Amino acid sequence: MMEPSEAPDGASVELLDRRLLFVTGKGGVGKTAMAAALALLGARQGRRVLVCEVDAKGNLADFLEVPPNTFQAQEVSLPGRASRANGRLHVMAMDTEESLKEYLALQLKLPLIARVGPLARSFDFVATAAPGVKEILTVGKLCWEIRRDHYDLVVVDASATGHIVSQLTAPEAINSLVQVGMVKNQTSWMVEMLSDPAVTGAVIVAVPEEMPVTETIELAGRIGTETSVDLATVIVNKVLPELFGRGEEEIFERLRAEPTRDALSAAVGGDASELLEGARLAVTLRRTRTAHLARLRQELPSGVPLLYVPYLFIRAHGVRATTSVAESLAAELGL
Amino acid sequence: MAARRLPRDRDEDAGAARSLEQLLAAKEIVITCGSGGVGKTTTAAAAAAMAATHLGGKVLVLTVDPAKRLANALGLEAFGNRETRVPPDLFTAAGATARGQLWAAMLDTRESWDSLVRTHAPDVRTREAILANPLYQNIAGKFVQSHDYIAMERLYEIHASGRYDLIVVDTPPTRNAIDFLEAPERMADFFSSRLLRWLITPYKSRLINVASKPFYSVADRILGTQFLQDIAEFFILFQSMYDGFVERAHAVERTLSDQRTTFIVVSTLESAPVREAEFFIDALAQKHLHLGAVVVNRVLPSYFVDRQAAATAQRLERDASRIAAELGDEVGPAAHVERVLHEIGASFLNYRVVASREAAQRAEMAHVPDVVATVPFFETDIYDLAGLLRLGNAFWR
């Protein structure tokens, strides 16, 4: 099933040793599934892991089979046994308004409702008006969890390709807009954290199709030029299996040709033409995707490791699917 | 939840469109929506190309996706904020005779905001001050929500100009599918908000009232005074455009719910896009907006769900060795033939699982709109107008 890949180099081996991973990608590529799988894998390897859903679609809860996700982190009981005893997995959904309340309560030590009331009520407007407020409340909360050492690893099911750059650059943007005050200091350490490749990494999820590959290449470029975040890895999801090996394609072509096809139908006791047509479709899809994959490999900045996850025919979501993806990733990472 | 249109209602609604052709013939604005990666932009372009070919008139496809491939497919080097005509000879080259004209434009958020400011600013000084304000530049260029609003605003502007018979709009990828439907309302709310008054008042009158004082002390400590002043300056400037903006936002809102406007929900049959499509369909119903059609892309061939074919595939997988022997040497070395046969059977059964799952998804969706169009899995990417028309032909009638 697996795409032949080079032995994982240094960068990908240490993927899970980073503290903060932003998982992004074009819509529909399996970004949430990969975030869930990376988190699960991290926990199985003995880490205290938090996985956070930013876009609040509620899909992350499905992949881990937990009740609807809230701002308050809930612990996920790990399927199977964690390979080391202290491995733990928590899951939360980002809620920027809750994040603001938590921030104000922590930082200003104000009685919450009395003082924050008017601010919270107008929150939507503030967030719309001032640049990057929602982004900073998201990134800020996650950075803070690491700074306080609440978790070894925070995996973010981050914004899709269109918005991830503004999310990653929000601390810098705010840092340059605000000249003094608490926010100035706080965004300073956030910037430091985000630009340290030992701490923070971006993970782009792609599928071997034209638009996702194009967007991945573009995003990899933008992450390099517009942000200070290190592109840790690109995960290629939904890789189709190669049906036929060397020399077998000719056999397949012979089977499809008239006299053999009829002989095959007779031997199998049913019309074989639809089976052959189905196989031809599978071969074509695989071939088209291989071409896109080749372009991805060629145009990504050199040194960015690629991890391959096979297409799951059987299950599309749920813990079993997540576990299966985590196992593929573990194999790719040499774990 | 507002009432869904169930199949039995259809007979009573004799005027309802039965195909995309009829739908597009009856409407002036078609808005495609759905989750990312389902072929929304391509569907919008294909629908516009089909309308220009078969219905005639001037048709515009307005996209937010700067995909170079789409530009190339439309015979354009690139297209920007300005509306550009697709060369007529491209239709000839694709083997079609266009009765009308096809135009394309991309939505450049920044440029559209600037032109909006130019329209509504009371004087040159205010206009220049707004355009130069760093906060404005942030909002216009980077804000996710600002894309939603500006897309609807631009649509309104083009529609009101009367330049086109039909406008097909590809919606921006939103965090939440209904964000852009609410964008005009939010924009109007925003400009009428109490917060805006709070932000502006002290800098106008130097009087901070009792209600807003705690807000200021908190905001001051967190953000610093300078930043607040920047924000206030921006809003004082922006408020001069208040009336124009609010009026405009309401007009945009009315356009969305106008009878001449319809929505096409695009999806594949994977579970996440289907869920988003259903969510969107409900949101449209709640807002009393017209759902014209659902287009289901990339549907696997139906033979994968055929029971007899599946039984044959199982036998092929199980008896590969015997069948290889029966076929004899001329096909190839027996061991290889056996493996190939086994793979054909196994692959068929794999795809069958996916096709069955998708058929179930389809059945759950089926009772939703007047028109549900199914588009087969195309084996190659669409890279020219002929490809768009081929796709269009799959959902047209």
Descriptors for this entry?
A: 335 residues, alpha/beta, 14 helices, 8 strands, 14% strand, elongated, B: 397 residues
Can you lay out the helices and strands and say which pair or pack?
The complex is a heterodimer of chains A (335) and B (397).
Chain A: H1 10-13, E1 20-25, H2 31-44, E2 48-53, H3 59-64, E3 74-76, E4 88-93, H4 96-108, H5 112-121, H6 123-129, H7 133-147, E5 153-157, H8 161-177, H9 182-194, E6 200-206, H10 210-226, E7 230-239, H11 248-256, H12 258-268, H13 273-299, E8 306-310, H14 319-333
Parallel strand pairs in A: 1-5, 1-6, 2-4, 2-5, 6-7, 7-8
Antiparallel strand pairs in A: 3-4
Chain B: H1 9-12, H2 20-26, E1 29-33, H3 40-55, E2 58-63, H4 68-73, E3 84-85, H5 89-93, E4 101-106, H6 109-120, H7 124-132, H8 134-142, H9 144-161, E5 166-170, H10 179-191, H11 194-205, H12 213-223, H13 225-239, H14 242-257, E6 261-267, H15 271-286, E7 291-299, H16 307-318, H17 320-327, H18 334-365, E8 371-376, H19 385-396
Parallel strand pairs in B: 1-5, 1-6, 2-4, 2-5, 6-7, 7-8
Antiparallel strand pairs in B: 3-4
Write structural notes for this entry.
The complex is a heterodimer of chains A (335) and B (397). With 335 residues, chain A is of the alpha/beta class. In chain A, 53% of the residues lie in helices and 14% in strands. Chain A is built from 14 helices and 8 strands. Chain A has an 8-stranded mixed β-sheet, sandwiched between helices. In chain A, helix 2 (31-44) crosses helix 14 (319-333), helix 8 packs across helix 9 and helix 10 packs parallel to helix 13 (273-299). Mean pLDDT of chain A is 85; it is low at 1-13. In chain B, 59% of the residues lie in helices and 12% in strands. Chain B has an 8-stranded mixed β-sheet with strand order 3-4-2-5-1-6-7-8, sandwiched between helices. In chain B, 47% of the residues are buried. Chain B is elongated.
